[in-house]
Amino acid sequence: MAGKEEAKERDALAESLNDLFTSVSTMVKGQLQGTNNLLELLEKMNLRVAEEYKGFGDVASGLRVFVEQLKAKSGNFDEYVQQIDAIEQQVTEFEAVISMLDKYVSLLESKLQSVYQTPPQ
């Protein structure tokens, strides 16, 4: 009888070990599946971010072209800006001449008034 009980105990132990290994295997599979799910999510997020940055690259490239066009256009205005500066300088000089003439005319007016106000002798 001792042999039968030993066999039953071995069978029970073997069954318990089998259950243990099955449970551990299920747990490891679950953890691996969870890790796999996280990696898939990370891959999708990376693809989404890559799409987003690709769009930013296109925008940056477009802005670079736009800035180059603006530089070319502003270069065309340099000649006009120089002409405007020259005109401004001439206007300043002209204002100075007008101011001198105005003072001279005022002096002549005052001389004429003094001549006409002085009684003849």
Summary?
This protein has 1 helix and no strands. The longest helix is centred in the middle third of the chain and has 116 residues, at 2-117. The protein is 96% helix and 0% strand.
Description:
This is Biogenesis of lysosome-related organelles complex 1 subunit 2. InterPro entries: BLOC1_su2. Belongs to the BLOC1S2 family. This protein is mainly α. Helices cover 96% and strands 0% of the residues. The chain is built from 1 helix and no strands. The longest helix is centred in the middle third of the chain and has 116 residues, at 2-117. The relative contact order is 0.03. The model has no long low-confidence stretch (mean pLDDT 88).
Overall geometry: rod-shaped
Instruction: Extract low-pLDDT stretches.
Output: none
The SS-based structural class is: mainly alpha
What's the helix count?
A: 1
Largest sheet: none
Helical proportion, percent range: over 70%
N-to-C span: 173 Å
Number of strands: 0
- The string of secondary-structure elements, in order, is H
Beta-sheet strand percentage?
Answer: under 5%
Mean pLDDT: 88
> Radius of gyration from the CA trace?
50 Å
InterPro entries: BLOC1_su2 (IPR019269)
Family: Belongs to the BLOC1S2 family.
Protein name: Biogenesis of lysosome-related organelles complex 1 subunit 2
Pfam family, one: BLOC1_2
